[in-house]
Amino acid sequence: MTSLLLTLAQQSTMPHIDGMYWLMLLSRILHILGAIVLVGGLFYLRFVVSPVGAPAGAAPVDQFFSGHRAAWAKWVGIATLLLLVTGLWNYMRTINTRELPSSYHMIAGLKMLAGIALFFLAALLAGRSAAADAFRQKWRFWLNVCLLIGVVTVVLGSILRTYPVVLKLDAANLPELIAPLNANTE
Predict the structure, then answer these.
(1) Residue 25 falls within a domain, yes or no?
(2) Which residues pair with 98 in a beta bridge?
(3) Backbone angles phi, psi at 179, to 5 degrees
(4) What is the domain range of residue 101?
(5) What CA–CA distance (Å, rounded) separates 51 from 130?
(6) Residue 157 lies in a domain
(7) Domain contains 183
(8) pLDDT by residue, tens only, the chain of 186 residues
(9) Number of structural domains the chain divides into
């Protein structure tokens, strides 16, 4: 353990640990946890709950939830909120602090569109309206679509993480260059 700590302490590329570091770390953790809840929950519904079928006498809206649809809907909402807030924060922070090619923005836009589609479909699957009941008539199909969109979103996010980090230069933090006085100017 001591050798690990010594090795870490000797790294020349350690991050600058300040308030922004902790905020960005928290944002990343919450973003990943939101994705785990949403996509993991959809995976569970598709491959664990869905094959079992509905319990006898279950209400149509709770056919696949054994009476726990409202709990799932709450978690879909929480995960969606976490992903929207942290995703927007991470994107704004990234574009304000890094030099990025236009392809980065294109891939980020596709990821955002895929995420919004996933939020909408997951909310509809968990909903309690007549439209949600009709939507759930093709339960497995829509769960498969959600999982495919979830995988595409993760792949796009992974591609974005591979872009090289080139920080923007902040003119206010650059050293001021002053030319020495020339003795021959008189």
Answers:
(1) no
(2) 167
(3) -75, 140
(4) 34-50+64-166
(5) 23
(6) yes
(7) no
(8) 777 666 766 666 777 788 998 999 999 999 999 999 999 999 999 888 876 665 655 666 677 777 888 999 999 999 999 999 999 999 999 999 999 999 999 999 999 999 999 999 999 999 988 888 888 888 889 999 999 999 999 999 999 999 998 888 766 666 666 666 666 655
(9) 1
